[in-house]
Each structure stands twice: as C-alpha cells, then as structure tokens.
Amino acid sequence: VVIVDQTLLPERLEFVELHTVEEVGDAIARLAVRGAPAIGVCAAMGLAAALGTERGSSREHLLECARRGAQLIRDRRPTAVNLGWALDRVLARATETPGDAPAVLRAMRQEAECIREEDREMCRRIGEYALQLLPVRARVLTHCNAGALATSGIGTALAPVYMAAAEGREVSVMVGETRPLFQGSRLTAWELTRAGVPVTVITDSMAPMLMRDGRVDLCIVGADRIAANGDTANKIGTYALAVAARHHQIPFYVAAPSSTFDRSLAGGGDIQIEQRARSEIAGGSGRVTVPEGATVENPAFDVTPADLITAIITEAGVHYPPFDFRSS
Ligand code: MRU
Predict the structure, then answer these.
(1) Using an 8 Å Cβ cutoff, are 142 and 220 in contact?
(2) pLDDT digits over 135-186, tens only?
(3) Taking the model in full, what pTM does it have?
(4) For the segment 179-231, what is each residue's pLDDT rounded down to a tens digit?
(5) Is 26 an active-site residue?
C-alpha cells in the first residue's frame, strides 16, 4: 500500500510503501496516514496486502494471521471508529469466503477496494448535500483536516468547499493551526492552496474573536466517532469552536460518512478518547516548551454535545436535531 507521509507536509510531498502489518500500524500511530476515513481505508488495504506473504499457507493459518494483524492495527488509534469498522469488514469477508488461502486473499483485497470506492462516493454525496447549506459567498471556518488527505475522495468537511470552488462560487476557508500536530496549518492549508481555494490560517484561540467580528458565516468540521444521539468526537478544540459558534449564533455543521457512526454508543460519554504523548506538546516544535516539573495533558479528541450541532451531513442527507442514529 502506498500512502502520502503526511508528517512531512507541507515541506515535502513523499510517498511511503507499507508492506507489513507492523508498518501499517506504525504509519497509523505516527499519523503518517490520518483522518478517520483514510485510516480505515489504509488499514483494510494494508491488511489485505501484507497478508500476501501467507498465500501458500492453509486457509486456517491465513485467517488466524488476519485476526492477529487486524488486532495489532486496530489498537493503534482507539477513537476513530472507521479503523475497526473497516478491519471488521475485511475480516468478515475473509471468514465467509470459501476456498483456499489465495481465494480468501482475493476476497479481502476486493473488500478493501470496495471500502475505498465507497468512501470516495460518500465524500461526493456529502459534498452535494453540504453545498446546499453554503451561502452564495461563504466564509467557512474548519478545524484540523477533514479534506482529501483524510479520505479517499474530496474529503468530508472540505467537500462542499471544493464543489463550491469548482462552480466558481466565492468561497474561502479559515482554519485553526490545530495544535499540537498542526493538521490545520500543515495539511488543510496545503491541500486548499494546491486547489487554488483561498485559505487563512489562524491560531486556535482566535476563532471566537473572528466570529464576534462577523468574519465567519458557518463552521464545518469532520468527525472521528458519532454516538447514536449525535454527540461527536473530533479533533481537540472542536468543542470550543461549537460553544463559540452557539454564542455567536453561527451554524455549526458536522460532515461525516455513515462509517463514522457508532450506533452501539448511546452518547458521547462512552467514546474512548485517545491520549497521546507528552512530547507532542512539550517538545513538538523542536525545542523544550514545557518545564520538566509540569504535567501535560494531550487528548487527541474532544466530544461536542449534540445540542451544539446545527446539523450532521452524511451521504444520506442533512440530519437536524433531535438526532437519533440508533437504526439509520
Ligand atoms: O488525529 P487526526 O489527524 O487523525 O484527527 C483527524 C480529525 O479529527 C478529523 O476531523 C476526522 O478524522 C475527520 S477526517 C474526514
């Protein structure tokens, strides 16, 4: 599997080949590939490709390797539900496919490719629905990166932006740096400038001031896991944006494919939040920015309660509160 090493952007655009489940797991853990849908697709394709070395083994041995490999990859990032969802799909396909190891491997690859194609299509449909919510001239505030880099297609939160730009509409984006790993300034700004979409990078704490000054028409963010009641886990800082948007009466939208819903969870309180290393905050910029005696907290995500969300846009349409995704 070939991925863009997102840790090197925006300085360098480099591709990395992943051959083993360990390499796939490491790429996911160090955020070389990131964004919930992209993680899922990479995991599914990576597992199927890495097991190619087991082509000559028995069907039972291959299935056992698949289960172990999936577990190793799955554990690397706990919040993005797409990761386990995609791995489970490939595993289920493997188990139900009759025949020898090569037949099972072929089916796993097909399933992984199917997940990638579905993801592409879901992005497009999310874009079409979300486009209807954009004013003629739209100044969009987003957070982190929920664009092409985070998916197999044109992104989720950024999909309507790309579509509006393609139609020649006036659209611009503001994005917070997204500390501590700078997905907003490094990645969202990189892909939007490449596409010729005007983008302004702001510090994460600037957003409420811009809202107060009337410089934001709407907020759109992606999601890593959405509970049945609409509570949404997304990059740390999303909750603060939603609170500020409510205060300033600015629409706050979440855009996500159905693969990001976790219908088994009644509410956001049950979402496991990934805790990341102290070094990302205390030494991430190449110098020591926190004294040794101070503790650091580094949750990768926070949960925005459903009542702060104006609508959730999926490939099936625009969903307004009260949300109930238990069976949809
Ligand atoms: O830690 P990251 O960079 O994987 O976090 C990504 C996000 O929070 C995205 O908003 C989310 O995964 C949606 S991507 C379409």
Answers:
(1) yes
(2) 999 999 999 999 999 999 999 999 999 999 999 999 999 999 999 999 999 9
(3) 0.97
(4) 999 999 999 999 999 999 999 999 999 999 999 999 999 999 999 999 999 99
(5) no
Give 170's Cβ-side CA count (13 Å radius): 6
Pocket test for ligand 1, best of 79, 235, 261 (most atoms within 8 A of CB): 235
Residue 24, ligand 1, Cβ within 6 A: no
The residue written with tokens 């302004």 in the block is 200
Name the helix (H) or strand (E) containing 19.
none
> What's the whole-number average pLDDT of the chain?
97
User: Does ligand 1 come within 6 angstroms of the Cβ of 211?
Assistant: no
Burial category of 218 from C-beta neighbours within 10 Å (exposed 0-12, middle 13-18, buried 19 and up): buried
Question: Exposed (0-12), middle (13-18) or buried (19+): which is 162, by Cβ within 10 Å?
Answer: buried
Residue 11, pLDDT above cutoff 90: yes
Query: What residue type is assigned to position 175 of the chain?
Result: V
Distance CA 11, CA 186 (A): 9
- Distance between first and last Cα of the chain: 32
Question: Which of 210, 313, 216 is closest to 261 using CA atoms?
Answer: 313
Ligand 1 atom closest to the Cα of residue 235 is 8
